[in-house]
UniProtKB/TrEMBL annotation:
Pfam families: DUF6594. It comes from Trematosphaeria pertusa. Keywords: Membrane, Transmembrane, Transmembrane helix. Residues 63-284 form the DUF6594 domain. This is DUF6594 domain-containing protein. The keyword Membrane applies. The chain crosses the membrane at residues 220-244, 251-269, 289-310.
């Protein structure tokens, strides 16, 4: 169990405190690993510290640059003897030191750029993974890194922009509705009662509860809902056109549906867009009536153009 208090919390946790916290949060690390959920691996960006380090490294590069300019000016002077055996070692030393400083500066810039562009922590994974384990009984007042838990906030609080995740989470309209509005009541009214009943049958501890549906299961659930919506759009368009007997009504409906049919793709994830495109391919199958076939071809073309445009923007 992590320690409740240290002798001086202002100085940070001791080495022993850190070791206790790492051992106590082994379940969090196992969850991230076994369930493939790096979206819940919360880390700090340290942008302020990185900026201070970058300024220091910049000064080292400028210092090496001035040293090289001084040596260069000295070698250019008419009094310099380039055949002197001391010139080449001095030149090589100055270039090696300059190269080391530039390499250091390049590495710092690359690391800082990656940290600044790192994905933000998704609210759902912050609450259902990281904060979930911190708020379990017996965890004490400290986070996995030994610092106070208040540094990361409580469940429901907004995620600080100073935090990042090891892997980003694709955010789309359907997924946000499921995770933010539907998952909590589903967990309390469906998942928990079923889990409790199942554990009672097996004679296990019914009071213990997991964090519910998440990880790969949540992704499958979201993709399934999106695919159902895609199939529903296709079915609705086909059924409507089949039940219109008038050529004029079919023309109006086909023109409208060719633009309305691909509209849901705006709210889909990248994975669902591919399934949506394959579903729309059904619209090109030959049927009775050239008007219906033409409307399907229009819809497919718009779907593929929209999908390709959104995919290029995402990349």
């Amino acid at each position: 169990m992590p320690p409740e208090h240290s002798d001086n919390q202002q100085q940070g946790p001791s080495r022993a405190d850190l070791l206790r916290c790492i051992i106590a949060y082994a379940d969090l690390f196992d969850d991230i690993d076994s369930n493939d959920r790096p979206e819940g691996d919360v880390r700090h960006r340290f942008l302020g510290l990185r900026a201070a380090r970058a300024r220091y490294v910049e000064s080292r590069v400028l210092e090496r640059g001035r040293a090289w300019e001084e040596l260069q000016n000295e070698l250019k002077s008419s009094t310099a003897d380039l055949d002197d055996g001391d010139c080449l070692p001095r030149f090589e030393k100055a270039m090696v030191e300059l190269d080391q400083a530039l390499h250091w500066y390049s590495r710092v810039n690359e690391e800082d750029s990656k940290a600044a562009k790192a994905p933000v922590v998704d609210q759902y994974f912050m609450d259902s993974v990281f904060r979930y384990y911190m708020e379990q009984p017996g965890k004490g007042l400290r986070a996995p890194n030994g610092e106070l838990r208040s540094l990361y906030g409580s469940t429901g609080h907004s995620v600080s922009p100073t935090l990042m995740a090891s892997r980003g989470c694709d955010s789309d309209f359907i997924r946000d509705i499921i995770t933010q509005n539907l998952m909590a009541p589903f967990h309390q009214r469906v998942f928990v009662p079923c889990q409790t009943y199942y554990r009672r049958i097996l004679g296990r501890n019914a009071a213990q509860q997991s964090q519910g549906v998440s990880g790969a299961t949540l992704d499958i659930l979201v993709n399934t809902v999106e695919c159902l919506i895609a199939v529903g759009c296709v079915a609705g368009a086909v059924i409507l056109l089949y039940n219109l007997s008038s050529t004029k009504d079919r023309l109006i409906a086909a023109t409208f549906l060719s633009f309305a049919f691909p509209f849901p793709v705006v709210f889909f994830s990248q994975e669902a867009m591919q399934t949506f495109s394959l579903t729309a391919m059904y619209a090109t199958l030959p049927v009775d009536g050239s008007l219906l076939t033409l409307s399907r071809i229009w819809a497919v073309l718009i779907v593929f153009l929209t999908t390709a445009n959104l995919s290029s923007k995402a990349d």
